[in-house]
């Protein structure tokens, strides 16, 4: 673990001018800070989401090199089933060459199913897998993806999460497979966050509208890595929290900073009819990452980034798996 307080040189946005005007903010409360870190001692990692195939991946990798944006993880949202074996292999090889974790979404989800409840005002069962066949599709995707070398799987259902965790424990999936909970079903309180950790999640997306106090509450019960959109897609609220990044890290570490994109149309499930939009938005997500890193540097809060190439979450709490 590292020092939970912000670096001594870090400053808050606008602090010198506001202090001169008698409008200084209260000093941060040390007890609010997360005491946790990644196994390597880093307190934050980066993620570029919605990278929907080899072509978009190539754009992200080229732009991250041009703008010097370190990337720990690249994730995809359309699903394993939307990619050919050759496409998955190409993505696995390209990310492995750069020590970047590749995360692909598993299987069917309720919003694409024939069930009508997800199209009601209540949203029904949302992203969850409806029925045995949907769970089976997720498992099929997981087995296929890991056989092709994918090491991280994105999950949007509690039952699928527990099933894949059991499969991992039984040796049906590689032991170093990591399971990432989707932002579309993310927990909003410390009790549910701890349950997802115990069900097998190695990385847990939380909704982007959680307050810093909410993050502190979660960190009092769980050290499982947290994923948070610094800029959220419109269907997740469209929030832009650039100026809060340092405080979000202080409260939520270990934290994946996700660079989404507001005011951009949805692209799931991806196909070539969405090619130009997907490539342009992939490039802009990396640029958003550069803006965030520049902001952290200006405030002296860019320390404690985990080394590039790191991916494992460290020891986590799990429910016992009965035989």
Q: H/E order of the elements?
A: HEHEHEHEHEHEHEHEH
* Mean pLDDT level: 90
Task: Report on the biggest sheet.
Answer: 8 strands, parallel, barrel
Work out the helix count: 9
Taking Cα atoms only, what radius of gyration do you get, to the nearest Å?
19 Å
How many β-strand runs? 8
Distance between the termini: 35 Å
Strand content: 5-15%
State the strand order across the main sheet.
1-2-3-4-5-6-7-8
Tell me the structural class.
alpha/beta
Low-confidence stretches: 1-6
Range of helix content: 25-40%
Shape: globular
Write the layout of secondary structure elements.
Elements: H1 15-20, E1 44-48, H2 54-67, E2 73-75, H3 85-97, E3 101-105, H4 131-147, E4 152-155, H5 158-169, E5 178-181, H6 190-199, E6 203-205, H7 212-219, E7 226-231, H8 245-252, E8 255-259, H9 275-298
Parallel strand pairs: 1-2, 1-8, 2-3, 3-4, 4-5, 5-6, 6-7, 7-8
Give a brief rundown of this model:
The protein is an alpha/beta fold. Helices cover 35% and strands 11% of the residues.
């Amino acid at each position: 673990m590292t020092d939970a307080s912000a670096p001594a040189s870090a400053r808050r946005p606008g602090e010198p001018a506001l202090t001169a005007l008698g409008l200084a903010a209260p000093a941060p409360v040390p007890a609010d800070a997360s005491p946790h870190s990644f196994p390597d001692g880093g307190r934050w990692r980066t993620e570029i989401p919605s990278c929907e195939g080899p072509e978009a991946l190539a754009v992200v990798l080229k732009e991250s090199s041009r703008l010097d944006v370190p990337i720990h993880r690249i994730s995809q949202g359309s699903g394993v089933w939307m990619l050919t074996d050759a496409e998955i292999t190409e993505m696995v090889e390209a990310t492995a060459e750069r020590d970047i974790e590749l995360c692909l979404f598993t299987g069917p989800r309720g919003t694409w199913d024939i069930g009508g409840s997800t199209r009601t005002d209540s949203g029904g069962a949302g992203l969850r897998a409806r029925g045995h066949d949907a769970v089976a599709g997720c498992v099929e995707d997981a087995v296929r993806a890991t056989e092709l070398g994918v090491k991280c799987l994105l999950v949007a259902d509690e039952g699928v999460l527990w099933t894949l965790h059991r499969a991992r424990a039984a040796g049906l999936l590689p032991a170093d497979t990591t399971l990432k909970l989707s932002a579309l079903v993310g927990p909003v309180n410390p009790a549910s966050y701890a349950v997802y950790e115990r069900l097998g999640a190695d990385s847990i997306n939380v909704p982007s509208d959680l307050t810093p106090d909410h993050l502190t509450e979660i960190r009092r019960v769980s050290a499982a890595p947290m994923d948070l959109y610094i800029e959220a897609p419109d269907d997740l609220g469209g929030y832009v929290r650039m100026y809060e990044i340092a405080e979000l890290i202080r409260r939520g570490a270990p934290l994946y900073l996700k660079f989404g994109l507001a005011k951009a149309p949805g692209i799931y499930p991806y196909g070539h009819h969405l090619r130009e939009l997907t490539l342009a938005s992939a490039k802009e997500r990396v640029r958003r990452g550069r803006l965030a890193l520049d902001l952290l540097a200006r405030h002296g809060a860019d320390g404690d980034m985990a080394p590039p190439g790191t991916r494992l979450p460290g020891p986590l709490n799990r429910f016992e798996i009965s035989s």
